[in-house]
Sequence to fold (371 residues):
Amino acid sequence: MKSPFQYGTLVDKESFVNRVEERKQLKELLGSGINVMLISPRRWGKSSLVKVAMDELTQEDKHIRVCFIDAFSIKTEAEFYRIFAREVISCAASTLEKRLEDVKQFLKAVSPSITLKSDPTDTLSFDLKLELEEKSVMEILELPEKIAAAKGIHLIVCIDEFQQLALLPGYKSMEGKMRSAWQKQQQVSYCFYGSKRHMMMDIFNNSSNPFYRFGQVLFLQKIKKEEWVPFIVNAFHRTNKEISEQQAEQLCDIVKCHSWYLQQLCYFIWSGTSEKVTDEIIEIRTRQLIDTNMPMFMNDLTAAQTAMLRAVADGEYRFNSIPVVRKYELGSAQTITRNKRMLAERDFIEKEGNKYAFSDPIFELWFRREY
Fold:
């Protein structure tokens, strides 16, 4: 029997939890031509949210086409332009023949070598032998608007892990070109989303950067417990297994309603349950959750950084006070400032009011167990 819980991949609509208002907002903004920058911590379900919302939007409006680009593994500027052009052309044309025609019509400044894949979905992939000259680059960046205007459609370009582009050599020049081309487009909307909050905030909320006020910045919130509990109970019920509302609430509390971890924990418990969930199953599978994710937590932290995390775990926040510095051996004031910034930038900790807390609930459980 297929599990009703999904993690590690884009969640399909059946396994998707609520987010009615967020889906509505994304559809309204992007469908109206307003660009969106969606920011949240890692694995809160951004990619699944965008995918489900855009699938709904294309069903509701047949004049809308959506392309998805994952920037996480892009290593060069040329690779980005190649993937950008390929995905825009692929989403705007339904058949291999039409895609070939669009390559010829809209990519006149470049000479792409076209590789055809023989598969049932009639997929076209092509690589661009591209010299990064101003004319060819701008033609590619202007491609969505030209195609949308010619076909009488509205294009939405979704770029996941957008902040990774900022790590490319020459990004500053690239950033200016993208803004210059994209801000003029009338029949194209852009949705940029990423999990490195500090980088995303700098790109879109720093007034000295080209993408400042490029569109609406949205901060994704956690799905509330009262939305998770009925989803969990119903998912068990429809697969002929039983979990109580109190137990479902307990699972939410263990992972602090973190979407990815909650789906993973529910999967472990569901797969380990024949009929009815017991407290023993929850305990065993929670340990499995921590142990499964443990390799991600084996980071090269210094002794002083580990000490600061111990202080955070104990509820300390006045890191520069003499008793705290001495108790945890935090080092000099300069070391404390540097480590606090580094731990926040790497999403180990985050500020909540005047205190700091762990960003990752399972890392926190692992850290408390180990240290």
Observations:
- The CA atoms of residues 113 and 250 lie 55 Å apart.
- Residues 279-297 form the longest helix (19 residues).
- The mean pLDDT is 88.
- The chain has 16 helices and nine strands.
